[in-house]
């Protein structure tokens, strides 16, 4: 059973998402919150698999709530999915850096919404190749100053190659084809890289790949 926490300051929107989720046999909405502070408290109480969090909310916004969830070892199993009206904007970008597994636009089709919940629950990032390219474009103008470089030394050559391909938006199957390995081996490389780099999910590996300089975005 996939346990979901809804965090949005609009009751009507929460009700709409809940109505979609409640009819699914494998998904359960465990709690609702109207702001990030309440959402953080409920995440600690219920330990959901997925926290659907709006960005712009009173008291505590979605970015700060995401940052605090990502920083709490007790919430390591909580995958944050950001809800937004505008697609990949600056707020979503910062939420991904804060630890979000991906994002959904609020006018998403119901079937795509349900599929995304299941994808995120598996631990896969909600970053399609087109979104990854936009993320890369954003990094062209962002400073690359973090302490990630030394941690990259812990990766094997194959793991570094896997992370580099992941940062280009490739799926496990595509990575496997490019590296002439099995999809299971590609997934193993990804998981080991996540563990060594202390990344919560694939989205964080993409962020780390560019911040560390492992992959350099092309100039526009």
TrEMBL record:
PROSITE patterns xrefs: HTH_LUXR_2, RESPONSE_REGULATORY
Domain of life: Bacteria
Keywords: DNA-binding, Phosphoprotein, Transcription, Transcription regulation
Pfam families to which the protein is assigned, alphabetical: GerE, Response_reg
Keyword Acetylation (UniProt): no
Residues with PTM 4-aspartylphosphate: 54
GO molecular function term, any single one: DNA binding
All copies of domain Response regulatory, residue ranges: 3-121
PANTHER family: TRANSCRIPTIONAL REGULATORY PROTEIN NARL-RELATED (PTHR43214:SF24), TWO-COMPONENT RESPONSE REGULATOR (PTHR43214)
Protein name: Two component transcriptional regulator, LuxR family
């Amino acid at each position: 059973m996939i346990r979901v926490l809804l965090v949005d300051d609009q009751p009507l929107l929460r009700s709409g998402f809940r109505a979609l989720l409640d009819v699914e046999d494998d998904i359960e909405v465990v709690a609702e919150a109207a702001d990030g502070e309440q959402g953080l408290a409920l995440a600690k109480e219920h330990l959901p698999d997925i926290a659907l969090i709006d960005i712009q909310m009173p008291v505590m916004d979605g970015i700060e709530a995401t940052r605090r969830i990502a920083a709490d070892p007790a919430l390591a199993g909580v995958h944050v999915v950001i809800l937004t009206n505008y697609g990949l904007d600056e707020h979503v970008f910062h939420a991904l850096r804060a630890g979000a597994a991906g994002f959904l636009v609020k006018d998403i089709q119901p079937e795509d919404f349900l599929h995304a919940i299941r994808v995120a629950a598996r631990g896969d990032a909600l970053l399609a190749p087109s979104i990854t390219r936009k993320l890369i474009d954003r990094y062209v103008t962002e400073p690359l100053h973090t302490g990630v470089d030394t941690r990259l030394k812990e990766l094997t050559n194959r793991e570094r190659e896997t992370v580099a391909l992941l940062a280009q938006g490739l799926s496990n199957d595509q990575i496997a084809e490019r590296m002439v390995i099995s999809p299971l081996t590609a997934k193993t490389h990804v998981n080991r890289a996540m563990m060594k780099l202390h990344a919560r999910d694939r989205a964080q590996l993409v962020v780390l790949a560019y911040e560390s300089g492992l992959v350099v975005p092309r100039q526009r």
